[in-house]
Write a structure and sequence with these properties.
Elements (H helix, E strand, L loop, with lengths): L15 H9 L3 H21 L1 H26 L4 H30 L3 H23 L3 H23 L5 H17 L1 H11 L5 H39 L5 H11 L5 H17 L4 H25 L8 H15 L1 H20 L4 H7 L26
C-alpha cells in the first residue's frame, strides 16, 4: 500500500521485502499499544473538531448529490458561479419546504399540549404505582432514574444541536461549504490524482467514480425510500385514528434513516401518542403490527429495489458503526456512519492489502467456506492444513 503513493524526486526506491520486514521487525507488545494510541488520538481529534468536521461532512455528501444538477446547468452554458448558486438555492427550497410542513404540523400539535400533559401525568402515576407494587422500586428511586435519563438525553441532543443542526452550521456553513466544494471541484480532483503515482491513475479514477455513484445512488434511494415509508406510516396511522398521523408518519420515516435504532424509536412515538390520547391497548397493538409490516416491506422489498446502492454493508458492521457514530457525534454521526463506511469499502476493495477488510465489511458470504485454514504456502500441493 505504501507504494501506491507517488515517490518524491530524488528519493531512493525501497525494496518491498525490506519495507515489509521493517514493519514486521517490531514485537507485538510494541505495535499493539502504538496502534491503540494512534486510534485513540485519531478519534479524539475527530470528537474535538466535530463542530468543523460534521458540517463539512454533510456538505460533502450533499455536494456529491447535487453534482448532477450543477453539471446540467453547466451543459446549458450557465455561468459557473450562477450555476452553483442556482443549485444550492434549489436545495435550500426543498429543505425549506420540508421544514415548513413539519413546523406547521408541530404548531397544530401544540394545541393539544395541556391535554397531553394531564394524560401523561396520569399514565406516569399508574406506572410508578405498578413498579412499586410489582418490583418494589420506590418512587424516589424511580424519579432519580428518570432524572439521570433526562440529563443524558439532553446532553446527547445538545451535542447534536451544537454541531449539524445549530443555526450557524445549518444556515451558513453547510451552504457555504457546498458552494466552495462545487466551485473548487477541479482543483480537488486534480490534487487527488497528483498525490498518487501515475501508474495508479486508472485505479484512482475508478475509486472516485464508484464513490460518487455509490453516494449519489445511496442518498437518492434513501430519499425515495423515506417518501414511501412516510406515506405508508401516515396511511396506517390515519386508518387507526391516531392524532397527528401525518407528523408522526413523516418523523417515523426520517428516524428510519438511522439503521435498526431509528425504527424502534419510530414505532415508540405513535404508540406513546395512542396511549395518551386513547384508552385501552387495542390501538397501540395495531400500531405495532402495522409498523412491523411496514418495516418488513421496507427491509425486504423497498430497500433492495429502491435503495440501489452499489455497496452493501452487512448488518453487524452497520450496527457497530451506527453506535460508534452516535457515541462520537450524536445523531449526526448515526446519519453519516453508513455512507462513510460504504466509501471505505470501495477503497478497501481496490487495494490488494485491504481487500480482506472490504470483504469483512460486505454482506457477500463465501461460496464454499472451509472449516479449516489452509497454509497459503502449501495450498498448491494440498498439503497439511492448519487447524
Amino acid at each position: 500500500m505504501g507504494l501506491f503513493f507517488k515517490k518524491s524526486k530524488g528519493s531512493q526506491s525501497v525494496n518491498p521485502d525490506q519495507w515489509l520486514h521493517a514493519r514486521q521487525g517490531y514485537p507485538f507488545y510494541i505495535k499493539a499499544p502504538m496502534s491503540l494510541i494512534g486510534m485513540y488520538l485519531f478519534f479524539y481529534f475527530l470528537y474535538l473538531l466535530q463542530d468543523i468536521i460534521v458540517p463539512f461532512a454533510f456538505a460533502g455528501l450533499i455536494a456529491i448529490l447535487l453534482n448532477p444538477v450543477y453539471n446540467r446547468f453547466q451543459k446549458w452554458n450557465v455561468n459557473k458561479v450562477l450555476a452553483i448558486v442556482l443549485t444550492v438555492f434549489l436545495a435550500i427550497l426543498v429543505v425549506a419546504g420540508i421544514m415548513f410542513f413539519l413546523s406547521s404540523q408541530i404548531a397544530h400539535f401544540g394545541e393539544m399540549l395541556p391535554q397531553l400533559q394531564k394524560k401523561t401525568e396520569a399514565l406516569l402515576a399508574n406506572l410508578q404505582s405498578w413498579l412499586s407494587t410489582s418490583f418494589g422500586i420506590s418512587t424516589e428511586k424511580q424519579m432519580s432514574m428518570v432524572d439521570e435519563a433526562m440529563n443524558s438525553s439532553r446532553t446527547y441532543i445538545g451535542k447534536t444541536l451544537n454541531t449539524v443542526f445549530g443555526v450557524i452550521s445549518f444556515f451558513v456553513l453547510i451552504p457555504l461549504y457546498i458552494f466552495l466544494l462545487l466551485f473548487y471541484k477541479p482543483l480537488i480532483l486534480n490534487f487527488i490524482f497528483e498525490v498518487f503515482d501515475e501508474d495508479n491513475s486508472e485505479q484512482v479514477a475508478e475509486i472516485l467514480k464508484e464513490t460518487k455513484g455509490a453516494v449519489q445512488s445511496y442518498i437518492v434511494g434513501l430519499m425515495i425510500e423515506t417518501s414511501i415509508v412516510a406515506t405508508l406510516n401516515s396511511i396506517a396511522l390515519l386508518s387507526l385514528g391516531v392524532k397527528y398521523a401525518l407528523l408522526l408518519g413523516v418523523i417515523g420515516a426520517i428516524l428510519n434513516l438511522i439503521p435498526y435504532i431509528g425504527g424502534v424509536v419510530a414505532i415508540a412515538l405513535p404508540v406513546l401518542m395512542s396511549f395518551i390520547t386513547k384508552d385501552g391497548y387495542t390501538t397501540p397493538l395495531l400500531i405495532i403490527g402495522a409498523y412491523t409490516l411496514i418495516q418488513f416491506a421496507d427491509n425486504n422489498i423497498i430497500v433492495p429495489r429502491v435503495v440501489s446502492s452499489k455497496v452493501s454493508v452487512n448488518a453487524l458492521i452497520s450496527i457497530l458503526v451506527v453506535l460508534l457514530g452516535g457515541t462520537l457525534w450524536g445523531v449526526s454521526g448515526m446519519f453519516l456512519s453508513i455512507p462513510f463506511i460504504a466509501v471505505l469499502k470501495i477503497i478497501f476493495d481496490r487495494i490488494d492489502e485491504l481487500k480482506p477488510w472490504g470483504k469483512l465489511l460486505g454482506d457477500t458470504m463465501p461460496v464454499n467456506p472451509s472449516g479449516k485454514v489452509v497454509n497459503p504456502e502449501e495450498a498448491e500441493d494440498n498439503s497439511k492444513p492448519l487447524l
